[in-house]
Amino acid sequence: MNPLLTRLHPYPFERLRALTRDITPSPAHRPISLGIGEPKHATPQLIKDALVAGLGGLAAYPGTAGEPALREAMAGWIHRRYGVAVDPATQVLPVNGSREALFALAQTVIDPSKPGATVVCPNPFYQIYEGAALLAGASTHYVNSNPARNFAPDWDTVPDEVWARTQLLYVCSPGNPTGAVMPLDEWRRLFELSDRFGFVIASDECYSEIYFREEPPLGSLEAATQLGRPDFRRLIAFTSLSKRSNVPGMRSGFVAGDAELIKQFLLYRTYHGSAMGPAVQHASIAAWNDEAHVVDNREQYRRKFAQVTPVLAEVLDVALPDAGFYLWAGVPGDDIEFARQLLAQYNVAVLPGSLLAREAHGINPGAGRIRLALVAEAEECLEAAHRLAAFTRSLAH
After folding, report:
1. Taking CA 50 as the corner, what is the angle to CA 101 and CA 45, rounded to the nearest 5 degrees?
2. What is the DSSP letter of 211?
3. Which of 29, 66, 331, 365 has the lowest CB atom count within 10 Å?
4. What is the CATH number of the domain that holds 74?
5. Confidence band (pLDDT; 50, 70, 90) for 52?
6. How confident is the model at residue 397, as a pLDDT?
């Protein structure tokens, strides 16, 4: 058995189930879950139709690089969204959702034979970053989010001796769970560090199309182009249809960036058997080529957050994020006990922030906060918000 498997931590939802096993949720309230970030809005009909129309392709093995039409659709979307030109033949590669690609890239990039091989990631973080690092034989260095910086990680806290061992940096912008978007100056700093120390940057951008201001979030490829790095050296961006198009079960996304990295990643994926099915490719082309359903989806989230955020802001430390579909709310007392009692008394499930982070540099930066995934319909999210507000007020008495 691979001994590195013993280094993996239980997933946050496994830990939450164990921590609430003794809880009997209030039978007076119907259950509402704000715990899992699984999109619940309706899948667009045009994607369903394209998926069915592509079923004829099931009679053939798909290529790992995907059909040229798919890569062209992805490159076309990048150009329309970011004003950035990429070569669909060498700088774009389809993946089966960003999750598997984020994991697989570490296995491609990390050289565990080098002493102190390190992966740097934000804290709190998406647990795939950590698992990918550990199973690649690397150590992890966590960069705590800073409330004074809109909950963005403070990269300047990383010592040079850590950067010198770093082979891969995971960035999440817009962030999970905080919703923070990295500005251009921060990208400039990370690119300078990458040039100086030679590490690869993996930019997780799966929440890029759910935003609340008029200006869409800056993407890594866009930042690189603006900063005179059109070759995207040592940079790979990850995006997905799951949140953008409400198709989490389709497992479809892509990576784009440095052509040399894409070439090596394709080699790894060819042996790993990571080809996207023909029907999913066909449906993905339809999704990337249509923006109307994305605009509608974004408007649904905007209306929902506009209703829910003020209700919670009366009792909790919470504000509208830059982007994403989470609220990162400060709660009174212990976040785990808050979540347990909320479930027991009001049958609302939330994810304690401390389960999304690691103790690092003397603190757990998720402690005292909860993550609320506003993925259900507005009526259900609003009812959950009122229950949360009532529960929080009860704690003051």
Report:
1. 100
2. B
3. 29
4. 3.40.640.10
5. very high
6. 72
Q: Are 98 and 117 spatial neighbours (Cβ–Cβ below 8 Å)?
A: no
Smallest Cα–Cα separation from 84: which of 284, 210, 227?
227
Q: Is the pLDDT of residue 177 over 90?
A: yes
pLDDT in tens, 257-288: 999 999 999 999 999 999 999 999 999 999 99
Instruction: Report the run of H or E that residue 279 belongs to, with start and end.
Output: helix 278-288
Strands 92-95 and 253-257: antiparallel
To the nearest whole number, what is the mean pLDDT of the chain? 96
Of 290, 305, 326, the last residue of a domain is: 290
Task: Compute the average pLDDT of residues 153-182.
Answer: 96
From 290, 310, 339, give the residue that closes a domain: 290
Q: Do 10 and 132 fall into the same domain?
A: no
Give the CA angle between residues 191, 197, 203 to the nearest 5°: 40
State the DSSP string of 23-41.
----TTS--EE-SS----S
How many C-beta neighbours within 10 Å does residue 285 have?
22
Separation CA 80–CA 213 (nearest Å): 18
Strands (E), the chain: 32-33, 92-95, 118-123, 139-146, 152-153, 166-172, 200-204, 235-240, 253-257, 326-330, 348-349, 351-352, 369-373
Same domain, 141 and 226: yes
pLDDT at 209: 98
Question: Which tens digit of pLDDT belongs to each residue from 85-118?
Answer: 999 999 999 999 999 999 999 999 999 999 999 9
Residues 214 and 302 sit within 8 Å (Cβ to Cβ): no
Distance CA 234, CA 109 (A): 10
Identify the three-state secondary structure at position 127: helix
